Each structure stands twice: as C-alpha cells, then as structure tokens.
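Journal club prep — side note

Before the paper discussion, L.F. wants everyone to see what a predicted structure for a comparable chain looks like in token form. Sequence:
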Amino acid sequence: MKQILLRRVIAVAALPLLAIACDLGTDPALLESLTAAFQSAPPGFSNTTNSFAGTPDSMNPQWRPMGHHGGGAMGPGGGMGPGGGMGPGARGQGLGHFMMGGGLGGLFFGDGFGAGFGRGRFGDGGILHGDCSYDGSSGRVVCATETRHGLTIDRSAAYYDASGQPQSSFDSLTTDAINLRVAVSGTVTRRDGSTSVVEHGSDRTISGLAPGSTERTVNGKSAGEEMTSGTNDQGAFTAMRTIGDTVQGVVIPIQAGVRTYPTAGTVIRSMQVTVTYEGESPVTSSRREVITYDGSDTATIVITRGGETRTCTLPLPHGRLNCS
C-alpha cells in the first residue's frame, strides 16, 4: 500500500501542469487568496525531498481561502523563504516576484550538501532516522513508520557502488549513489477548525558520493496533494492544492569548506489550486517555474501563471529574484 501511494503521487509530478487560470472576476479577496496559496507548501510536505524551501509545519503558514472580509488566507510565519523575495506585483492575479512554496530550497540555491551528507550511519544527511534495517525483499533500508501530528511518514533508501551494483548498507569507501524515498499521508486539523487531508511522496537519487568525486548529481521527483474543508464568512468550501517538482541532472560541485551552487541541470516546479464554495463553480489557478543552471553564477527562471510568462534571473549563491 505504501509503495502504491508513493508511485501515485510521484506520477502526479511527472504530468505537465497546464498554465491555466479560470476567470477570477474582480473579487479582490479571491485574487489575493489564490496568490497566497502559492506562497506556502501543504502541511507535511517538508518531510519529503523536494526543491521547495520546506519550512517545518510549526512555522509553515496555514493557507485557506479568504472570505468576503479577507481574513484567514495565511497563518503566522510570512511564507517567504530563500529565493522568495517579494517585489511589485506580488499580490493579486499577477505573477509576483516570488518563488512558490516559501522559496527555493538551499540545496538548489547555494547551501551545497553540507558536511553531514555522505557521512554517518546512513550517509544521507539525516533524512533517515530511527529504527531502520535492510529489507532483502525490496533491496532497501527501510525505517519504521513514524506518526507525528496526525501524519504517517515512511522513509527508505537504496545504496549503489560506482558500477551500479546494489549494497545492503551505506559504505563510506564504496557507496557512490543513494536513492531516497519518502511517503507522507494523514489528516491535519487546523487552528481555525478546518481539516486537511494530505498525501505526499518523493523519490530522489544523489550520485557522486564515492571518495575523490568532485561533483554530485541530483535527479528526482516529488508530488503532494492537500484537500482542505472548512467554512469562512463566504460559506462552506473545499480547497485542493497539488504541488510537485522534477529535478533533472542538477550538478553541484564539491569543494572542501565551500558551499557551492548548481552549475548544470533543470528544476521544474508546479502548483495548482482549486477553490469551490458550496453552490458555486470551482475556481482554479496554477503556476509553473522552470529553473535552468548553465554553469554561470546566475540561474534563469521562467515563471508562468494564467497565460502570462516572465523570464527572471537569480544570482547564485543566495541572490534575490530579479524579474525586471
């Protein structure tokens, strides 16, 4: 069942997201609410491996549709992480000078892998933890299911040497690649009384871990679904958010004592939100970001929302998004 869930949500990320936005009319609260939906990630999604900034759930803004009076779009926490600078036009139906899901995760922005990755018991930088053991039937190191705040989290890893042969455990001398899988599901009760049912998953492979390697390569996908039901002063509503990314051949150089940024590869990120009030037609909006690394110290980011496309730049490392 866990593997079926993981394959299903990963398949969502593989599908191209249509850059569509239904006629939103002139309701400023609805325009504001849909834009706010792109600025945070669904609860529990930070447990997966993905390119979004991924703040912990305790800090992640709890998004829900605004009512007529504009209240309740986001909870405390702001919602702008690395690469998420706000600029003119960030509100309303326009593209906005920000990146989805709280911003761009540090691995893709200039933080590198850090000293912990490729070391320790599992060599994974701390993604696996708890009671984990090798399962010969799957060829993976599988961790005991974790239950936290209404969510069930399953993690596993597979290891390979430089010739692609599987290994039963991480070996600091011979392991060259790690495949990490995470599945998250459950129901979250929000502070305002609304409930969110979530299903998330990720599948990421990092290679270039063997001693002497001068670079690491990241490939993977993540996908998540959040269905929220609640009531505001406009009435009863359901809100569906889908989020996901595809990381293709992102190369990150390895230099001792230096945080490095990607020099090659592409990251495709997408999110779609649909809000339906009881007795009314659903309203849908979507956003897509394509990040390209070309070996220079500037990444190119093409943002599309509602038929509008803009090409932006992001200085590396830790620059500010420029969409002038």
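L.F.'s comment for the group: The CA atoms of residues 101 and 242 lie 11 Å apart. Keep this in mind when we get to the figures.
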